[in-house]
Structures are given as C-alpha cells and as structure tokens.
Write a structure and sequence with these properties.
The chain has four helices and two strands; from the N terminus they run ααααββ. It has about 160 residues and is mostly helical. It has a domain of about 55 residues. The protein has a two-stranded antiparallel sheet.
Length: about 160
C-alpha cells in the first residue's frame, strides 16, 4: 500500500516536538479508528550540508531552476499562512469536540472545505493568480495543465 508522503523542513528538535504533539493527540486515534487517516509516521531524513543545516533548495522540485529552488520556501510559507487565516475566517466559533460522533466532526470540516473550495473556484484566478502575475510584470507564462474539466482548466 502506498501513502502520500508530506515533507516539511524544520530543525530536528522542532520536528520531534511536532511528532510528539501529533502522536499524543487523541484525534489521531479517532481518525485512524474511523479509517479517515490510513497511517501516520515520521522519519528523519539525512539531507544536511556540512554546517548541519537543511538547505532550502532541498525542499523543492529538482526540475526547477536553482533560483526557484532557493526561494520557493518563502513563497509557500506565505501562501500557507494565508490558507490558515482563510480557514480561521471560515470556521465557526466552536469546533466539535472529539467526544462527538465522527460523522458530526467530519461534517464540520467538510463544510469548511466546501467554503474554501468555493472561494478558490470563484476568486482564485484574481485574488491569487492575477496578483502573482502582476508581481512578475504580466510576463506571459507557459501553463502546464494537470486536468482539463470541460472548459475549465486546472493548473
């Protein structure tokens, strides 16, 4: 069975604290028990230079030019912070308690996902893509679509 692996770049001590927080959280047990999460594991990668620091470019796509690899982390961190702020602005005052039935918890988070998807679908082209394009001076780009859904192309 293959699992999608997510990577992150952080100091070993911080990564260990994050792992401990996840493994001690009762949500992990609830999600795996309901088969909403197949598995959780953490492994440390040896991806360090002689100064014992992970290089930023080690966290990006090797097919990109080195200039993008070395600056990618700054971009994705900003986008990630915006995504978390959007979720905070969407979610209701109180989230469900882990003692509630899993279908109520799942419904709560699906509602957040639905609203987030609506925002992206309707406003992503202008709020995100148009403004990124503006930063680069509206220079034409070669778009490599990953899906074509009717007349809607996703990148």
């Amino acid at each position: 069975m293959s699992y999608k692996q997510n990577r992150f770049c952080e100091k070993a001590e911080t990564a260990q604290l994050i792992d401990e927080e996840i493994t001690s959280n009762s949500a992990l047990t609830k999600l795996t028990g309901a088969e909403l999460l197949k598995a959780y594991f953490w492994e440390e990668k040896e991806n360090q230079n002689q100064n014992n620091k992970t290089k930023i470019e080690d966290t990006s796509d090797r097919r990109w030019p080195i200039e993008i690899q070395m600056s990618w982390l700054h971009f994705i961190m900003g986008v990630s912070e915006m995504l978390l702020a959007l979720i905070d602005n969407i979610k209701e005052e109180s989230s469900p308690n882990l003692s509630e039935p899993i279908n109520l918890i799942e419904s709560y988070y699906l509602k957040i996902h639905k609203r987030l998807s609506e925002i992206w679908h309707i406003h992503g082209s202008h709020a995100f893509l148009h403004h990124i394009n503006a930063l680069f001076g509206y220079v034409p780009l070669i778009a490599h679509p990953r899906n074509i859904l009717g007349i809607i192309t996703t990148f």
